[in-house]
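User: Show me an example of a complex going from sequences to structure tokens.

Assistant: Sure. Here are the input components:
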Amino acid sequence: MARYVLKFGGTSVANVTRLQQVAHIIKRQADAGHELVVVVSAMAGITNELVEYAHSLCPDKLSPEHDVVLSSGEQVTSGLLALALSQLGLQSRSYLAWQVPIQTDNTPSQARITNISTTHLEECLKQKRIPVVAGFQGVNAEGRLTTLGRGGSDTTAVALAAALKADRCDIYTDVDGVYNADPRSVANARKLSHITYAEMFEMAAQGAKVLQARSVELAMKHNVKLRVLSSFVETEGTDIVKERENVESTLVSGIAHSQNDVRITIKNIPNEATSMATIFSYLVENSIPIDMIVQSGVEQESVDLTFTLLHSNLERAQHALKEVHKTVAYSQLDIDTDIVKISVIGVGIRSDLNSLHLLFKTLAAHNISVHLMTTSEIKLSVIIDKNHMDMALNALHQAYQLERVTPQ
Amino acid sequence: MARYVLKFGGTSVANVTRLQQVAHIIKRQADAGHELVVVVSAMAGITNELVEYAHSLCPDKLSPEHDVVLSSGEQVTSGLLALALSQLGLQSRSYLAWQVPIQTDNTPSQARITNISTTHLEECLKQKRIPVVAGFQGVNAEGRLTTLGRGGSDTTAVALAAALKADRCDIYTDVDGVYNADPRSVANARKLSHITYAEMFEMAAQGAKVLQARSVELAMKHNVKLRVLSSFVETEGTDIVKERENVESTLVSGIAHSQNDVRITIKNIPNEATSMATIFSYLVENSIPIDMIVQSGVEQESVDLTFTLLHSNLERAQHALKEVHKTVAYSQLDIDTDIVKISVIGVGIRSDLNSLHLLFKTLAAHNISVHLMTTSEIKLSVIIDKNHMDMALNALHQAYQLERVTPQ
């Protein structure tokens, strides 16, 4: 008998029929004698609808009331799935975050789990009942509801797997595993049988939607075995593991892309010691994370600053930068929303000059200009124009010979 | 400065624009210096949608998971209204039932409030913040969510008004007050400026949708001043009071009707001591409340039993009565769904033979047959065919001279 945490995402629970299919998947695992804890997301589309309501009433996302509104979607799914399980003769009950409790810090919309009490869930398992936990939500020290950010149900599942010492955390989704590029853009994209935590983290952080990056980070930290698989078709999924089993495998494991970024350029900033500090303090105070940064003209009287941030933070960033202008007299603010970030992922890629060279050579051969670039131990990321996206993805997939990767 | 509980129903908070209008109503009261506690229902239509989801997965309404699913609607509204208030510069925060807490017993879908702790709400008021409480929901002794039955937000509002010793509880709805008959059926229906608790209770219990009957009962018990008014138009509403101020006013205060009932007749039940006990024990065990009952042929070998129950309980009732048949060999089960219950309401009506006579005389004059009838201190109710509804309502309205009632 093993203990598994099973997580079902939004498309897996999108309607009553899907919920019944999910109940059958759970029943098969229960009939096999496994101890199960289930985590659910909101039904597909619900969270977007709730975000829209809340946003049209109050664009300031940092109110804790946004979390109250948003967390209702997972409550509905947990109750409905418990009902569907009861119809199959399985004993179960729903758990909301405050009932577990799953405690978090106090950051609205982006809370981090600080503690999970397992007493109630262990008691539930002892009674041979299947707990169905509402994902994405938590409760802070004041007893108010919080949410864990988009895709936060993955984090709930991994955190529960760690706290309950589960043998594995299975993430059921609408794709049948992790691909080395987005199959919708790259025809030759291949499903991976294994990928390391580090690579999966970068794939997720750079735009692969299959898992929330933070959940991978958490799995890596607590050494939780992760598996990504489909709730729609029965095929082998992808295991996310500590180290690649096949050391012969190629350096580059995949290509991710994200269309969620916006590029902002602030022109002719007075080159004074306080200028940059002021700009960044306004962004930090308004909780606007920025990603890639480039500063030009450091030796001159004025400098230009270019950076990217999430499209969803653009409105607040514009507001903050208008405030900045009262003390830092820059001349112009350019905003480019027609960009895409493409990342080549592979452990140790930064120290491999060939990979870097291949990236620029391939893009140049297709006349694709690079607006910004960053590197990390494990990825090379570039910002290019959005209309070059599919061309770049396919060219890079071929250049890094990803279609020939032997199944790992 | 007065302390008011303001309750806004489903159509009052149906969309973002409506929520903003409600926020303006609240602001006017706050600007007038009043201390306010707000209670909200789910946005119109949401609860029905959730009921449908839950019902299609599991028709057994008695699972506590139904309550988990259903209570999410009020959570959304409370968060959204708190956001709308913040945009008008009003300090507020949402409260879910478990955060207050509003404690209830353990009856799924029909829980009763057992205790309300006012500490957190008083603290919130002290900080000059407006609490926006999610109606309809509670939390039981095990810390699980419960719901108070359809229209339960009215009960939440009245119970809070009693617990917080509020000066009045204002129920905002989509009608501008309580009418002495349904204006959609009776053209001469008149709005009442006052009505007694007892009369309002019967009006609500007999089908007037403006208030949940239990909330009126609770208001009467705790002497909470109630006012029904419109969130759509600014007019005077109806005050629900202890005693009629105008003792000269007519005996009959209004006519209510309900189309939610079904009439069941069980034919040829063996006239044994245990027969009736068996039938009623099955209904009680399955939590199926029945309303009007008539038994015929008591002196014979077999008897017929006729009673009415809510349409929503019909499916479960049929199931229970099939079980009954295994031990009580009745010959036939007749079900009539095309009925309407019409009730004439007035304090002391039972002891007034003229009222009773007028009822039968009027119906007979229009060739309307009465299938069943019951009386109480305060009402006369009859079951007639649905296709006679409008004719009966208008005829009775005229017979009892309700269009001539002087404003009370």
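The lines above are the inputs; the final block is the predicted structure for all two components together. The interface with chain B takes residues 16, 19-20, 50, 53-54, 56-58, 60, 63-69, 71-73, 75-76, 78-80, 82-84, 86-87, 93-94, 96, 98-99, 143-145 of chain A (CB under 8 Å).
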